[in-house]
């Protein structure tokens, strides 16, 4: 089934829920029979043959660079988890608080660097492009660490901390300023006792398009919002074309790999997971490599001896 044929409601629910579809009797039989390989030499054979590699990355890759996610136990900003602030309703109620949260997340990124997994992915793309082979990175991460590492072909399905979108004219713009506006300077501290800065809405980031001056919002996909149709169409194209799929830092029962990797696997294309631990979905795929992806991924994507152009 094509992604674009999925009804929006299902896309939305897949976007923000862990997926654990109950396997059919036949699938259960297959799951019991199949075991993914963790044989690196076999993966390297598939890697050497691949012309179009799709790399799907999730929160685990960012976590190894120390990027906070504000989800799960202890993952609070002031009194809230990301799910309570990253919504259109929260922004409508209190745009100042939501902007403080995103300002803080942007500022935190000034001190974070790509880790060896980001670097290995970018280096692989640079090297393979000289050989007429392609690498695309499909990521749910909004921190731009892939871009910072040098990745060129990047599909950010959740948008970016460093882009804004005008709530009036819809203009999307890259914005790396620190702070993004004078009123947010020194604001956004995460400690639970900090009071809202209650910045007047006219002093929050505003659109600089001629005569607009609309309120800007972070260009990220919030809970309850649909993914960008153009980005999804690009993802679909890449998934249809790839002849090797690498899933990094996200388990295959959790979005986004849960949406994308099984689609690729069902075409008979090898899928390799690089993740801290195996999950019930792991057995659907050809390869699984357990451990921190900063350790497991670099040797997997390094130059193969059959690559004549480095
Ligand atoms: Zn505007």
From TrEMBL:
EC number: 2.3.1.-
Keyword Transferase: yes
Main location per the UniProt record: cytoplasm
Its job: NAD-dependent lysine demalonylase, desuccinylase and deglutarylase that specifically removes malonyl, succinyl and glutaryl groups on target proteins. Has weak NAD-dependent protein deacetylase activity; however this activity may not be physiologically relevant in vivo.
Amino acids binding Zn(2+): 166, 169, 207, 212
Binding site for NAD(+): 58-77, 140-143, 249-251, 275-277, 293
Family: Belongs to the sirtuin family. Class III subfamily.
A GO term from the CC aspect: cytosol
GO MF annotations in UniProt: histone deacetylase activity, NAD-dependent; NAD+ binding; protein-malonyllysine demalonylase activity; protein-succinyllysine desuccinylase activity; zinc ion binding
Cofactor(s) needed: Zn(2+)
InterPro entries: DHS-like_NAD/FAD-binding_dom, NAD-dep_sirtuin_deacylases, Sirtuin, Sirtuin_cat_small_dom_sf, Sirtuin_class_III, Ssirtuin_cat_dom
Record text on cofactor binding: Binds 1 zinc ion per subunit.
Compartments where located: Cytoplasm, Cytosol; Mitochondrion; Nucleus
Chain ranges of the Deacetylase sirtuin-type domain: 33-307
Enzyme class: transferase
Active-site residues, Swiss-Prot/TrEMBL: 158 (proton acceptor)
Enzymatic reactions: N(6)-malonyl-L-lysyl-[protein] + NAD(+) + H2O = 2''-O-malonyl-ADP-D-ribose + nicotinamide + L-lysyl-[protein]; N(6)-succinyl-L-lysyl-[protein] + NAD(+) + H2O = 2''-O-succinyl-ADP-D-ribose + nicotinamide + L-lysyl-[protein]; N(6)-glutaryl-L-lysyl-[protein] + NAD(+) + H2O = 2''-O-glutaryl-ADP-D-ribose + nicotinamide + L-lysyl-[protein]
Record remark on domains: In contrast to class I sirtuins, class III sirtuins have only weak deacetylase activity. Difference in substrate specificity is probably due to a larger hydrophobic pocket with 2 residues (Tyr-102 and Arg-105) that bind to malonylated and succinylated substrates and define the specificity.
Pfam families named in the record: SIR2
Cited CDD domains: SIRT5_Af1_CobB (cd01412)
Positions annotated to bind substrate: 102, 105
Protein name: NAD-dependent protein deacylase sirtuin-5, mitochondrial
Mitochondrion found in the keyword field: yes
